[in-house]
Design goal:
The protein is of the alpha/beta class. It contains nine helices and seven strands; from the N terminus they run H-E-H-E-H-E-E-H-E-H-H-H-E-H-H-E.
């Protein structure tokens, strides 16, 4: 996916998850005036929410490897009037370009443990740049129910290569994102915690949410045809393609939900943030 396509997809999808991300950020109880890092920030949408949480005297640094995404993030921050409270830096989450103990907290969503990279080195690197007693938090999309009344088809789709992505078929069980508590324990982080956050949507859908759900359907199960039976493929095309007259979002009683899972802990030593 090109940078521009990713940006458009992120913007289209954001209305679905903004309240969920906001709830996770609030659960961390980040102190007002604290300074933190959003590792793998993409276009910086969560930097805006994090900046709101730490207040006028706080600061958020967003880091991403894509210059194009950071440039878009810089434009958004300027439009929001947050240029003094949010800054961006190009860099790799594998080797953060910051000194030890540089931040009060670090946050990363849909990044650490959410792809092919080994999670432990990434989490260790995040902990390195946090002050003793500071917060390390990771979050990721964990499940969804988007096809009410069609559990068999949804189960079939969930078992495709696209359906299990980005957890990756064949990955060791202990490297699955939902095993993240073990990563925190292995690194000696204090008081690891885990919590699921959910949001739901139901008919009648306003245009913004409907468009976001259409974007989610397009993103969730791409190129599944070779892995479905002919009957399942016909049902998928009937229910899950927006140009179908039977597109499931057209149901007058449509309902869907999805979940995010967040794991967080404190770094060893020092006082609590």
């Amino acid at each position: 996916m090109s940078t521009e396509s990713y940006i458009q997809s992120a913007l289209a999808f954001e209305p679905l998850r903004e309240s969920t991300i906001r709830a996770m950020v609030r659960a961390l109880q980040l102190p007002e005036g604290s300074r933190g890092l959003d590792a793998g920030c993409g276009i910086g949408l969560q930097c805006l929410l994090l900046a709101e949480e730490v207040g006028l005297t706080g600061h958020v640094t967003g880091l991403d490897i894509s210059v194009g995404m950071l440039e878009h993030g810089g434009e958004m921050v300027k439009e929001a009037g947050l240029s003094e409270r949010v800054s961006f830096q190009e860099g790799d989450v594998n080797k953060l370009p910051f000194e030890d103990n540089a931040f009060d907290w670090v946050w990363s969503a849909d990044c650490v443990g959410y792809g092919p990279l080994e999670p432990l080195p990434l989490l260790k690197e995040m902990a390195r740049v946090v002050k003793p007693g500071g917060i390390v938090a990771i979050a990721a999309w964990s499940s969804e129910k988007l096809l009410p009344g069609y559990p068999r088809l949804e189960a079939r789709l969930g078992a495709t290569s696209a359906g299990i992505a980005p957890f990756i078929q064949g990955k060791k069980p202990e490297l699955h994102f939902l095993r993240a508590l073990g990563w925190f324990h292995q690194l000696g982080l204090k008081e690891p915690r885990a919590k699921v956050f959910a949001d739901s949507f139901y008919a009648p859908l306003d245009d913004e949410i409907r468009n976001a759900l259409v974007a989610l359907f397009d993103m969730r199960w791409p190129k599944v045809a070779p892995e479905l039976s002919s009957d399942d493929l016909a049902e998928f095309r009937r229910l899950c393609l927006s140009d179908s007259p039977d597109f499931i979002l057209n149901l007058p009683d449509y309902y869907a939900f999805f979940t995010y899972a967040m794991f967080w802990s404190k770094t060893a030593g020092g006082n609590n943030v």
